[in-house]
Write a structure and sequence with these properties.
The protein is α/β, with parallel strands linked by helices. Helix content is 35%, strand content 17%. It contains five helices and five strands, in the order βαβααββαβα. A five-stranded parallel sheet has the order 3-2-1-4-5, sandwiched between helices. α4 links the parallel β4 and β5.
């Protein structure tokens, strides 16, 4: 059954999306459920600075996102390279920003900065972490260390 996409609301999400996993997919599903989605994808420089580990290149991460979105939502994704945590959220109008517990603080900072610029705040929608079999959050870091797979199954 094909999912109907809501196009009336503007939704933003941001991240590195390195090793696309079930946690990322939950974030994307919530975002697409709420409206038309714009994705801020960290540049290679920003990703390396933030993650302190090897990260897939921007084009690879972008293609993984595009393939998932086209397959899951039958939509053409809007993916914008971002160089800082604010990305394009201070210029454009958005109704929602979908975040995980890990990125909620950044959304709050975005709204502080938007308020400073006399812009309407973005409603923050926080999803829960998707947990691996061991009850800990699924993360690209844990996957890259060989602890779990993309679905959160234990490998060690």
């Amino acid at each position: 059954m094909e999912k109907k996409l809501n196009r009336s609301k503007k939704v933003v999400i941001g991240g590195t999306f390195d090793i696309l996993h079930d946690g990322h997919k939950a974030l994307l599903r919530k975002a697409f459920e709420l409206g038309e989605v714009a994705i801020g994808l960290t540049s290679d420089v920003m990703a390396r600075e933030m993650k302190n580990r090897e990260v897939q290149g921007f084009e690879y991460r972008k293609k993984e996102l595009e393939d998932f979105i086209r397959g899951e939502f039958k939509a053409e994704p809007e993916i914008v390279k971002i160089e800082d945590k604010f990305g394009f959220t201070l210029e454009k109008k958005f109704d929602y920003i979908v975040v995980s517990p890990e990125t909620c603080e950044t959304a709050q900072l975005i709204n502080v900065e938007r308020q400073r610029k006399k812009k309407k705040p973005i409603k923050i929608v926080k999803i829960k972490f998707v947990l691996a079999e061991d009850g800990k959050p699924i993360s690209a870091k844990r996957i890259s260390r060989g602890e779990i797979d993309r679905k959160g199954r234990l490998l060690k």
